[in-house]
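If you are new to this repository, start here. Below is one unmodified record pulled from the training split, so you can see the exact layout before writing a loader.
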Amino acid sequence: MNASYTIDGVTLDLTRTYVDVTGVEWSWTGRWTKAGEPLMQTTSGYMSLLDVYQLHGPLIPLPQRITSVQVRAAFIGRIPLGVAA
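And here is the target side for that same chain:
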């Protein structure tokens, strides 16, 4: 399944959560509309990605949360084994 979609030359990663210009968060439901557009959801309902983009302005990806694996890798990379912190 393709997890990206291009609108006006901008490719959006559908695995990310986005925020519109009013601060509302939108995420992909994993489903597609009959027109072949990604179906997005927010706490107030559902809308096609094209409608969200046109009615609520450009979408800004929220920063991805750091995982515990990434935190451990950062610490291991900075503190050599056998060295007291």
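Two things worth knowing about this chain: The radius of gyration is 18 Å. The beta strands are 4-7, 10-13, 18-19, 25-32, 38-42, 45-48, 60-61.
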